[in-house]
Amino acid sequence: MKGQVAVVTGGGGGIGSGVCRRLADAGAKVVITYRSNAEKANTTLASLAGEGHMAVQASVTDSDQMTALAAKVTDTYGRLDLLVNNAGITTPVPHDDLDGLSDEWIDRIFETNVRGAFACVRAFKALLQADGGGTVINMSSVAGQTGVGSNVAYCASKAAMDSMTRSLARALAPDIRVLSVSPGWVLGDYATRFSKEYIQSQVDATPLARLSTPEDVGATVWAMHTSMPMATGVIIPVDGGRPLGA
Q1: Fewer Cβ in 10 A, N or C end of the chain?
Q2: Main-chain phi, psi angles of 160, to 5 degrees
Q3: What whole-number distance in Å separates Cα of residue 20 and Cα of residue 11?
């Protein structure tokens, strides 16, 4: 990826930071976006190999900020090869607790996880189409297929993201490839909210007997962009075979 440019939304988080480091190790210049946690974004920025990276405050829920970010990337680098729609939110709510999942949280989840990803693609479309075309990789989840996840709205938002991936892959071909990467449990920031016993139960139910790491996800994103030129509109799992487990 030497000479290439990648934008990773929410790049300061656990999964996002792993993706950023893998892309930087491959030679890319990486633009990290964050909504409010500048400290995490700048910590990730400082950890990246190479030069020419930057961290920018820009919320995916604000289309004007995304348009401004696209202009900044154009002015700074003059190109964009890879957009990773990693920004996302959720909150744990038992699936049978319908009253516990408020309208506010449902709206927030879809605003960020679905509308935000679409807004990013819309803002960067022209830049991605230049210089022979680029790649969009949406950060989905096994929850979008299994319906098992932090809450009902989160699962639905990831299913919507996968559907959007297919629609955009058709609409933006042949210039832009659009794919989803679909992790299972990842040993990142979110996993720290749960007990060691619960995490171990997830390991025990995973055929490969371990959970994914941010580095696993980063390696998959890199491979999808660099080594799968005939793939578009597909969802690539990074879950250790978790849907096959108990």
Answers
A1: C
A2: -65, -40
A3: 7
| Dihedral angle sign, alpha carbons of residues 211, 46, 83, 229 | negative
3-class SS of residue 18: helix
d(CA 109, CA 70): 23
How far is C-alpha 175 from the geometric centre of its chain's CA atoms? Answer: 21
Find the radius of gyration of the CA atoms of the chain: 17
Residue-level pLDDT, tens digit, the chain, 246 residues: 999 999 999 999 999 999 999 999 999 999 999 999 999 999 999 999 999 999 999 999 999 999 999 999 999 999 999 999 999 999 999 999 999 999 999 999 999 999 999 999 999 999 999 988 999 999 999 999 999 999 999 999 999 999 999 999 999 999 999 999 999 988 877 777 888 898 898 888 889 999 999 999 999 999 999 999 999 999 999 999 988 875
Where residue 133 falls (left for φ over 0; alpha for ψ -120 to 50; beta otherwise) is: left
Q: Which residues contact 78 (CB under 8 A, 6 or more apart)?
A: none
Contact 208, 145 (CB under 8 A): no
Residues 6+ apart with CB under 8 A from 215: 18, 21, 22
**Which residue carries 């990276």 as its tokens?**
53
CATH class given for the domain over 5-240:
alpha beta
d(CA 54, CA 236) in angstroms, rounded, equals 28
Catalytic residues: 154
Q: Alpha-carbon distance 187 to 183, whole Å?
A: 11
Q: Is 89 helix (H, G, I), strand (E, B) or coil?
A: coil
Query: How large is the greatest C-alpha to C-alpha distance in the chain, in angstroms?
Result: 51
CA distance 138 to 160: 11
